[in-house]
Amino acid sequence: MRVFDTAAKGFTEVDHTKDLRIYVCGITPYDSAHIGHAFTFLTYDLVRRHAEAAGANVHLVRNITDVDEPMYVKARELGMNYLDLAKQQAAEFSTMMRALNLLDPAVEPKPSDHILEIAEAVKKLLNRGVAYELEGDIYFDITQSTSFGAISGYSDKLKNTFSSSRGGDPERKGKRNPLDFLLWRAIVDETDVAAWSTEVGYGRPGWHIECSVMSNQYLGADIDIHGGGTDLIFPHHECENAQSTALGHDPFVKTWMHAAPMLLGGDKMSKSLGNLVFVRDILQQTEPAALRIALMSYHYRSGGEWRNDLLAQAVDLLAGIRQALRQPSGGDPRPFRERIIAALNDDLNAPEAIRVLQEMVQATILGNSSPNAAEGLRGVLDLLGIDAAADV
Length: 392
Prior knowledge:
By secondary structure, the chain is of the alpha/beta class. The chain has helices at residues 35-53, 69-78, 82-99, 115-127, 156-165, 207-219, 233-246, 279-283, 288-295, 308-325, 334-345, 350-366, 373-384, and strands at residues 2-5, 10-13, 20-24, 58-62, 131-134, 137-140, 181-186, 196-198, 201-205, 223-229, 253-259, 262-264, 267-268, 304-305.
C-alpha cells in the first residue's frame, strides 16, 4: 500500500499484507467527539480493515490523553474531578466511534495509569544529558537531538508559532532554547489533584513524553505507522520522535501518516474556535453508516469543508446499497472489489472507493449475470466498514 510519509516528504510503500503495529494519538477527553475526530480515526480504521482483509494481523493502539492542562481547566469550570470528566467523555467518544463502526483498538492506554513509567523515562533523559531542570521543571534540550525538526521540516519561526499556540512555552525565560519542551512539571501545591510523587519529584508529565512511553510499552520501537492529525506534526510528533530516539528507540517509527483537518467556515474544526459539528448531533438525524460514507468522501490527506450535501448523497447511497442487497442476482462483483482494493492501495483513496461502490450498487441493481452479487457487495461493505444491516 502506497501512503504519504510526512517525515520522508513523499510516498512510501507499506506492506499491508504483513502484521502491522499502528499507534494513533487519541483524544484529550474534555468535550464531545466531533466529526474532525471521526475523520481522523476513520483513516486508521480503513488502514486496519484493508490490512486485515489482506491477511495481516494489526495491533492498533490509540491512547486517551487524560493528563493534560486542558483537562484541568475544563474540569474546574464544571466543578468536576478531571479523571471523572475524562472517564465520562472517553466513554461517549467510544460510543460514537463504535456507532460509526470503527473497530476497537487493541489497547487504549491512559497516561494516568503510566505515571511511574513516564517518570522513569524522564530520569533516563536527565541521566543521558539531554534534559535539564529549570525551577523544578524538566525540559528536553533540543540541541542534543539530531532528529528534532526532521519530521516537520518547518522553519524555526513556524515552529515557534506552533509551539506557542499548541501548548508550548517558547517565551519562558531561563530555557536553553525557546523550543525546548516540557518533560515534567513540578507542582508545589500538594492539594493539586493532578500530581504524583515520583523519582523526578512531585508533579505531572508533559504532553509529549506520555506517548513516547505508552507507544514503546505496547508496541516497542520501529512502529510501522504512527498516526494522528496534521496539527500533531509539530510540536507533538516532533517532540515525541526526538525524546524517543534519545531513549534509544531508534528508529522510532517507519512511517508517519497524518490526516488533514475537517473545516467549517474555512477554519479547522476546533474547540478553541467553537466551530464544531458533533457526531452525536448528526447521529440524532442520520444513520451512522451514512455519516461514515460521507466522511469517506474526503481524502485523508486533503480533508476539506464539511458539506451537508455529501451527507445527503451518502443517505441516498445507503438506500441504494440496501436495495442492491435485496436483489436475487446482479452484476459480477469481482471487478468492483479489485478496483476498490486498488484505490485503497493508492494512498488510501477512500473517495475513489466510494465512487466505485456507487457503480457497484448500480450494477447490482440493474444486472442479472451473477448470483453472487449481493454476497460480493457485502464483502466490499465489510472491507470499508459500512454497516448497512439496519433495514435489510
